[in-house]
Amino acid sequence: MSKHQNFYHPPLLPMPDVPIPNHYGAYLQKRKHDVHTGVDLYADNGTPVYAIEKGEVVIVKWFTGEKAGCPWWNDTMAVYIKGHTGTMCYGEITPTDEIIHKLKHPEDFENGSKIEMGQVIGHVTQVLKNDKGKSMSMLHFALHKHGLDLQVKHNEDPNADDFYDLQIDPTMLLLQMKSKADIMV
Hints:
Blueprint: E1 39-42, E2 48-50, E3 55-64, E4 76-83, E5 87-95, H1 97-104, E6 114-115, E7 120-124, E8 138-144, H2 148-153, H3 161-165, E9 167-168, H4 171-184
């Protein structure tokens, strides 16, 4: 495999279909409570989630559910990793114990909380409380320009105007990884 083909690792294996506009899981799809700022990759509960590139954990926080102020969903978490491409949000997951340990004890790790491309960072967690005839568990993957990592780290208002200015549509990147993943498995 050539060097450029190893720059990204698919976040899920096998890689599911990538929702495109007008699908309820697509980027910028208008929803009941918000505008979707990521892409939902539908997978079974417990499916491993891989880091798409090397980077550094910025924060792990509650993403959905009562603990995140969204009681209509189950409690799930998100891992934000700053890498070369930007800050990636891997939401609607349960992080691995290693990720949690790295955040609580960064002094135990050389260079802080470094993550390697392809490292398992968590597992998909069922987000929907009620079966609506759709997949009930998924990876919410979002991509942000550099700068969001500082906003997230300092707990700034995620609804601030610049939050939306920092969004990047991850659809094409995910479609490329879908092609790579289909070859890998």
